[in-house]
């Protein structure tokens, strides 16, 4: 199966009350580890790429070509979407041209009217090429005593307006945070999530910042309409911890331990380990159709 947009996997996830993991990729090893795990577990999967990671890999075209070729060469049969994470207006357009099957246009930092206008334009362009679109809604800050104990919380009315622009997935802050969570984190705001769900109906919701949210909260969010959970930091942590152990054990000094394929292997296996944990947690194992 070639790359697909997210529409069918999101519809199935919504119906089946599970979520599809969206894992950020940084290089070939990352991509291979996630694809291999998805295939072994018969799980649909979304490969996400930030604009920074795209740049690191020399551009959108390189990434699209690599992912397409790997899906084919590895004989992947589960649905795979290639998605731009937190795209700018220009980045989203470039990815649609380069062969991405899904893009996020993040206009959440823009004035609300501008977010509406630009989201509309991206939806029109993306849909003309069969590409799905995730949009993000402007947010209310959550600062207390100068310490951020809660991430941004979206306004349900704004969620409804953006959701009605024809987007395919909606990212709305419910207290989630990118990167590791601070010790004083107050948890996800399920009242807001339930309210958003009421206003947007069957629109698949996206939970960003999946690293470190306790399992019961992730599962509750999924039961309330979250169909896509983004995981980035945790893959990086597993990769780096495994790599550090390799060097600490002096493995690079043994036999062919200096071969980059050997150096990168523990990190590769680390990514596979955490992707499996997440897919099991999200309930997507065995759900590839
Ligand atoms: Zn995010």
General description of the model:
It is a single chain. With 289 residues, the protein is α/β, with parallel strands linked by helices. The protein has a single domain (7-282), classed as TIM Barrel (Alpha-Beta Barrel), CATH 3.20.20. The chain contains twelve helices and twelve strands. It has helices spanning 7-16, 28-41, 51-56, 60-73, 89-98, 112-128, 156-163, 190-200, 215-223, 233-248, 260-263, 265-282; strands spanning 20-24, 45-50, 80-87, 102-105, 132-136, 139-140, 143-144, 147-148, 153-154, 169-171, 205-207, 226-231. Strand 3, helix 5 and strand 4 (102-105) form a beta-alpha-beta unit. The protein is globular, with a radius of gyration of 19 Å. The chain starts with 6 loop residues before the first helix and ends in a 7-residue tail after the last helix. It binds zinc ion.
What does this entry show, briefly?
By secondary structure, the protein is an alpha/beta fold. It is built from twelve helices and twelve strands. The chain has one domain: Aldolase class I (TIM Barrel, Alpha-Beta Barrel).
Task: Please tell me the CATH architecture by its name.
Answer: Alpha-Beta Barrel
Radius of gyration: 19 Å
The figure for the number of domains is: 1
Output the helix-strand order. Answer: HEHEHHEHEHEEEEEHEHEHEHHH
CATH superfamily membership:
Aldolase class I
**Structural class based on helices, strands and sheet pairing:** alpha/beta
**Major β-sheet profile:** 8 strands, parallel, barrel
Number of helices: 12
Total count of strands: 12
The average pLDDT score comes to 93
Distance between the termini: 11 Å
The amount of helix comes to 40-55%
CATH topology: TIM Barrel
The bound ligands are: zinc ion
Beta percentage is 15-25%
Identify the overall geometry. Answer: globular
Spatial ordering of strands, largest sheet? 1-2-3-4-5-10-11-12
- Uncertain runs with pLDDT below 50, 5 residues or more? none
Give the C-level CATH assignment. Alpha Beta
């Amino acid at each position: 199966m070639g790359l697909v947009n997210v529409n069918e996997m999101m519809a199935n996830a919504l119906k089946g009350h599970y979520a599809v993991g969206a894992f950020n990729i940084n290089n070939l090893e990352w991509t291979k580890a996630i694809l291999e795990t998805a295939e072994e577990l018969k799980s649909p999967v979304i490969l996400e790429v930030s604009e920074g990671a795209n740049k690191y890999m020399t551009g959108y075209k390189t990434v699209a070509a690599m992912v397409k070729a790997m899906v084919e060469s590895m004989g992947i049969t589960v649905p795979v979407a290639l998605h731009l994470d937190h795209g700018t207006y220009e980045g989203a357009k470039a990815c649609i041209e380069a062969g991405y099957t899904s893009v996020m246009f993040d206009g959440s930092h823009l004035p609300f009217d501008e977010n509406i206008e630009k989201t509309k334009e991206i939806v029109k362009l993306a849909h003309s090429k069969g590409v799905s679109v995730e949009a993000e809604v402007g947010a209310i800050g959550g600062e207390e005593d100068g310490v951020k104990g809660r991430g941004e919380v979206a306004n349900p009315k704004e969620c409804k307006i953006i959701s009605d622009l024809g987007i395919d997935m909606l990212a709305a802050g419910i207290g989630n945070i990118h990167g590791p969570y601070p010790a004083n984190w107050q948890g996800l705001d399920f009242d807001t999530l339930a309210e958003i769900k009421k206003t947007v109906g069957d629109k698949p919701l996206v939970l960003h910042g999946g690293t470190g949210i306790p399992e019961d909260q992730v599962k509750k969010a999924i039961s309330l309409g979250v169909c896509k959970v983004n995981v980035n930091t945790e893959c990086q942590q597993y990769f780096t911890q495994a790599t550090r152990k390799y060097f600490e054990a002096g493995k690079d000094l043994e036999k062919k331990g200096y071969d980059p394929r050997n150096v990168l292997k523990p990190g590769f296996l680390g990514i596979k380990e955490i992707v499996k944990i997440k897919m099991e947690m999200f309930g997507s194992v065995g759900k590839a159709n």
